[in-house]
Amino acid sequence: MKLARWLAGAILALALASPAVAQRPEVVELRFIGNEAFNRSELESAIATQAPECTNPVYQLLLLCWAGIGAEYSELDTGALEADAFRLKVYYYERGYREAEISSDTSMVRPGEARVTFRIDEGRAVRVTEVNVHDMPEGLRRGRLPLRAGEPFDVVGYEATRDTLLHRLANNGYAHAQVLVSYTIQRETPYEATVSYDVYPGTLARFGEIDIRGTQETSSRLVHRMLAFEEGGLYRRNALLQSQRNLYGLQVYSYADVQAGFGEEPDSVVPVSIRVVEGNMRRVRLGAGLNTVECANVEGQWTSRNFLGDGRRLSVRGRLGNIFMENCGFLVNDEFNEEEDETYQVSLDFSQPWFFGPRTTVGAGLFAERSNVPSVFVRTAYGGYVSLSRSLGRATALTLAYRPERTRLDRASPLFFCVNFVACTFETGELSDLQEERWLSPLTLSFTVDRTNALFSPSAGYAVRIDLEHADTYTGSDFAYSRLLGEASRYTGEQDGLVLAARVRGGIGEPHRGRTSPALGLNPQKRFFAGGANSVRGFDQFRLGPTILGIDAVPHLVNGDTSSTPGIGRAETSAGTRVFEGAGCTLVQIEDGSCDAGGLPDGRFDLRPVGGQVLLEGTLELRFPVPVFGGNLRGAVFVDAGQVWAEPDSVDLGDIVATPGFGFRYQSPIGPLRVDFAFNALG
Q: Model-level pTM?
């Protein structure tokens, strides 16, 4: 025990006598002085010493970082400063500034806080005077090269030019080409560089034997059809990559590898080896949902990815909505969905992936549906479509489609149709053009590009879609119109988990004279509506844009006969005679303007969206990680803006309204979930 107490005392005495380890100061400021050729961010990427960073999204949103709260500081490492100065010198040297001199110094701003300064003397740049390419085959000399005369002698551009030349050769039959590079800087002219590329193209090569392995339920014939080359064709490296994309695009193969074989055959023949792994040929999907628009809904889909062979696809889909609507008052606001009958959608879709070439797909289908556009109309339609789609490159396609359908629009109130869409008068009978079945048969031309990195919640890339519709009597349509709709999205970030998403969407429609009355204007199904979860989120579904003041008692006022009791009327409906509480006016009183609607009870008036011919809306959203739920939860702040105008002549950008908000996105095992809260200053 005495020995233990003695050891403990000795350790304590040594600890008290030992000097405390000095804590390194933090870098609170990083400066570059003398840099002209390169900006601050470029130089920061080349060194280890970093300026203070604020990565906490909460602090960023509250602007606390700007006030110096929440910033993360790196410790000052004097040994690293010397290495950083050397890194900057190499950075300048590789980009043509071979005389650059870099020095660093530190100064204490306050105890424990240091300022780091890099002083740069860039010197004079070595510039390219000539770029000579020798023995390049005729026809391949044209085109810009990364390294150009008059610019600094950049080593990165120097190597990129070599790669560019090899790429051109490999895509024009020269499978074994080589390019040797050299540069000369004369002692007499130390700031001038002459660069030479000596090309050895070799012999022209052609594709040789094609070996396909891995097909079981599919056939080698299908693989052959999707290749962008054929045996005996001129060798092109891009054709191998395009063929691999074509095979993946079938969604039949979970793995596809297309490789050229070198060395086993003469230089003029390049055999190709293709390995595929088949995925699931059939898929069944079932789903159910609950929402505030249509209460409960269920859907199912069956897909065969190799229907009758050759990669043909057949898909059968069904959906049933508005289920249990009569018992859904706790969830659904009747103001947004007055339709209590079930809605449905049934479709049969077929596609043939090869049509006179691997880049063209033919599609056809049949459908029948009854859908409810809340507070606007109930649509019943059946018809079909045929389409021809052409791949223009990676994730880029052009599609021409024809979609004839028999359609009609229903509402509980016939007069609401007329007033809502300025569509008819009782004298002309134009109401039947909407309520009776008519042909709606547009031709559609669509251009799509999707270069995003994920189907759900992309973090990088962009997507563009442009749709042009046209319908007229020669397309078999009773309604004639032209309609253009475009949408573009851009995603940037992934720095510290932050993603900035931007989207803009706009469209314009114009009615033409068709078989229906000109008074109908643009068919309600083709008008633009805005507001809701996927639009300007500060507005209810379709509530942004032109509206009319609806009166719940309008059909009663028109068709009813006043009773002896003031304020009480009768209306003849399909269900019989209904007694209601209303203004009790006759049709004559309404027509001569003597009807007094002051007797209508409260709540009989509401705003109804009518849509418009011009749409413009956009979104700017910042997404950030929330460190809970295993990293599957992300937060977002956004600003939506937009407007719908009744017609092109009424467009005024001053009418655009903006609604900010915030939300959360959760990547659940069954799919992504999203909750948003938006604020509308207009109420």
A: 0.69
